[in-house]
Amino acid sequence: MLLTYKENVHSTQMYIPLKPLFSRHKGIGVQFTDEPTGALDSKAARMLLESFERLNWSMEATILMVTHDAFTASYADRILFIKDGKIFNELVKGKDSRKVFFNKIIEVVTLLGGELNDVI
pLDDT (tens digit, 9 = 90+) per residue, 53-71? Predict the structure, then answer.
């Protein structure tokens, strides 16, 4: 995979050519991403996430994304929350809007921090 950098007036952004990322082998396309929007500004992050959505639909590519960001996670169809090395919860978007799904994500994230007895 080739990563290059583009300079702009405000910041340095990573430019990732998407076509080589989504190779298809015998009809199966899987993309693994770890914090894909972590170093991007909000506009570039949204563009990348929208590209992932289009590629998921048009190429039937499976995208496995690791993120700590609820906004980024809200672009997914299914989320597995992991706590202490175990699956803590699962959310499936279904027919929910992204905004409704985002709010459900926030509800689960608030529970991830600790137990009710941990609150002072």
Answer: 888 888 888 888 999 999 9
